[in-house]
Amino acid sequence: MAGSRLWLSLLLAAAFAGPATALWPWPQYIQTSDWHYTISPHSFQFKYHVRSAAQSGCSVLDEAFQRYRDLLFGSESWQRAALTGEQQTLEKQSLVILVVTPGCEQLPSLESVENYTLTINNEQCFLLSETVWGALRGLETFSQLVWRSPEGTFFINKTEIEDFPRFPHRGLLLDTSRHYLPLPTILDTLDAMAYNKFNVFHWHLVDDPSFPYESFAFPELTRKGSYNPATHIYTAQDVKEVIEYARLRGIRVLAEFDTPGHTLSWGQGVSGLLTPCYSGSQPSGTFGPVNPILNSTYEFMNTFFLEVSSVFPDFYLHLGGDEVDFACWKSNPDVQAFMKKKGFGNDFKQLESFYIQTLLDIVSAYGKGYVVWQEVFDNKVKVRPDTIIQVWREEVPVSYMKELALITEAGFRALLSAPWYLNRISYGPDWEDFYRVDPLSFEGSPEQKALVIGGEACMWGEYVDSTNLVPRLWPRAGAVAERLWSNKVVTDPDFAFKRLAHFRCELLRRGVQAQPLSVGYCEQEFEQI
Amino acid sequence: MPVWITITGLIIGSYWGLLMSHLGVWGTLQIPMPGSYSPKTLILKVWTSVFSKSFLGDSNVQFGMRASSSGVGNIWPAGHQRPSKLFGLALPRHYRYHNYIFGDHLLYHLPAKFHVKADIQQLLVSVVRDSECEMYPSVSSDESYSLVVKEPVALLKANRVWGVLRGLETFSQLIYQDAYGTFTVNESTISDSPRFPHRGILIDTARHFLSVKTILRTLDAMAFNKFNVLHWHIVDDQSFPYQSTTFPELSNKGSYSLSHVYTPNEVREVIEYARLRGIRVIPEFDSPGHTQSWGKGQEGLLTPCYRSYQPEVSGPINPTLNTTYSFLYKLFKEISWVFPDQFIHLGGDEVEYDCWESNPNIQTFMKQKGFGTDFSKLESFYIQKLLNIISTLKKGSIVWQEVFDNNAKLQSGTVVQVWKEQNYAKELSSITAAGFPVIISAPWYLDRISYGQDWRLYYAVEPLNFSGTQEQKQLVIGGEACLWGEYVDATNLSPRLWPRASAIGERLWSRQDVRSLDDAYRRLTVHRCRMVRRGIAAEPLFTGYCDNVLK
Q1: Residue B132 contacts residue B159 (beta carbons within 8 Å)
Q2: Which of A173, A207, A246, B63 is geometrically suited to a Cys-Cys bond with A202, CB 3.0 to 4.6 A?
Q3: Domain A19-74+88-163: which CATH class?
Q4: Residue among B60, B112, B56 nearest B84 (CA)
Q5: Which residues of B touch A525 (CB under 8 A)?
Q6: What is the C-alpha to C-alpha distance for residues A174 and B310, in angstroms, rounded to an integer?
Q7: Which Cys pairs does UniProt list as disulfide-bonded (chain A) (predicted)?
Q8: How far apart are CA B190 and CA A252, in angstroms?
Q9: In chain A, what are the domain boundaries?
Q10: Each residue of B66-95: pLDDT tens digit?
Q11: Domain A169-510: which topology?
Q12: Rounded to two decimals, what is the model's pTM?
């Protein structure tokens, strides 16, 4: 491990902190100098190396070249810069890309290799990566290395970068049930995620308040369960668009259909799915979680998840399983009878487990893997060994670090979200708290630590919709992005502050409505339309 | 003055307020009506052609002029006879209330309506007294109005144009679209006036620059909430964006960049835009602290701080030099004619004494004046000289509470603004006991955010809940929601301000007994969607949705 080398370069970079070292997230290894080259917007090109496995026609990279050209140079017509000054600057006319493994039409996965090396010196301007996904990360880094002088000339410093993510799962959760988020809002978020090297969009599609996912097997779900079946839904076309837009940015779409709790909106369109709650000996007219005692429930789930499994191509589905309220089950005499028959006694966790296990069998049969919230583990549901457990509770039943230790000790893979609930706001620079977290600072063996595959920043939607989503997300989520990408030794808050403040101005320049970290200004401020 | 809303003659409640009534909100049907409500309520259809060409834009002020000459203005002569194209997309954008009410829908629902029997064909506006049309609003402006919505003509009556503006906002909020898309208004009678005359929003353009566009958008939203004061904290330590004609170096050197300034034209634009909405612009030039940015363009203004007798950095304004006061006179003379409002905010908060203490010349001055080591006396010395300058310029002063706390001798009529949260009720008692008018901000610092529905806390505040006589209570002229700029710029200003500030808007406008949180929640939910529909990125109160999603 090149620990000492990295430290050295980090300090060097921090020392002169010029425009060329304002990268976010910080790369694993970087060497850079004051020596720089000009870039002419007229002649500059992204080029495939002749030996690259990806060539012109590779949608992922062709489109990325176009995006980054626009991001770098915009659509202005550039004056050819007259070069004055003492330093003789060489011009870089192209970035040459070499991808080793073919795979342009595939989807990114948990196993995708995102490594890349970027070499900008007198001889070369070269991006080498194992996969197209790595090339995307390298292009983002390249775009952050290019800077403009006050006179408008573009430059890039002599730089050598070797980079790869610390964790393979770097996610952002959006909740489209508490508030509907229009499609453009989701797509814009995917762009901003790519700028931050996030690679998983955890789409919490449906929940108690609304069911915006339009199912072709059960169209009544959205007809009755959405806020407005004409405007507040995601059609099959919308979902496809999100998945493809994400793929082109190297982002996986992890769809969550949370059950058996958080399902009130499901009940509107599928009668008999939810448990009728009783008050005394009479049904109270209200409904609780999915009814786990009926065959019809599992028939429904069978069909529904068959659809979901084919609509969402990622290997993993998120099945939820959090916060199941037992009160309604307890009140229902049929559920009580079922409990007795099954010998569950009064332990409703066993009933929950019964439900979840049946559901997991269904989903496994479709060849999918799954992610579940920590309760499924806490309630000792028997799950397949390759299940991923997502930790979201900060203190209860145990601190989240302890929870990570327990989950990995049991041999399961874990995802961390507990300290990264971005919907919870407070006064001041709370990004520092997100930044300070180290996901591996729990007691456990190296094997256990290797089971932590990453984490997610969560933006739950109780108080968030398209009016405030973007400034609430960015640049706060950036802190999580760097924690999940960069080396564990990259922790200095001052170094982070300088780069993140610079990066938020870069986000503004790119049209992302990222809020300020502290007092100050950006050359190009946000202007509402 | 009693204020009533009646529906078809039945008094159903007494709501003052920006969110005026149970009746007019979208989704009226879901709201349980009081027992005395008559189910026979006549629902009137509103023609999209209610407003005439000469009305409801920035031109409504002109209209007010004409109205004043005749006593009653028939704002709109057209009805059936008017060709519908007049109200199509060709309608000039500046007909702002027309757009607020009918928005994009005009083209869709126009034709079918003409046969409906109960129609509102006109809104008649009557300005009873001299309209004050070309004037600026002031703390004593009369904002009262009465509104009678009845077939076939709705009548809006007010003493001044300012009341007309408030009434128009109310009228616009009474109209809703029924399930078939027909614009509908319930027959109603409203008589309304504000509880407090000073209802302000503070914006801070020094910690972060806010573009003129952002400020104008904020003024729009303020009018939707019947706020009437923009407290413009225009400069501070971090930057000096106000472009002074007398001292151009102040912004040349003290602004973040040359594009982060307010030119005289832009300041005029803000003031006029505000005036057209019945909003006063009170500039704050905070001194002697909070002035680091002033020092960049005005040499010798700030106090040199000494560490072992070497001046290193600068502190507050140097109160010992004559040059300071001649500078202040010239600057505030300019300010007094650039900003037409009767009041200027002089700041006076958070003065740190360390630097003054370190400076030998100041120490000498203190000795000379017999101040001992009490630097609050030096501060008061400075402030009193500044207050005298302002009164020479025939302006009134507003100061932060420290000026009062430090026993500066204040001229009567100086307004004191309370911002420190601890024991603010006690502070209100002392200030009013001393006979000074007071503005409350302490419980309403909107820049301090937290998770959840903090608007409920702002709403629950009762400004007159302090011990004091009737006369003392009358000295509370209002309050301000403050959105300080450390963490706020154009990216997040709107959702951070709205609808949280709306809670304060109602607290300052509506009667003391309008305080039901459930009722407020219902109405505020509707109002936030209304703001979103009008282009303000007002954030949600809680889970749910609006019919119109912000683009």
Answers
A1: no
A2: A173
A3: alpha beta
A4: B112
A5: 209, 211, 260, 489-490
A6: 56
A7: 58-104, 277-328, 505-522
A8: 56
A9: 19-74+88-163, 169-510
A10: 222 222 222 211 222 222 222 222 334 446
A11: TIM Barrel (3.20.20)
A12: 0.90
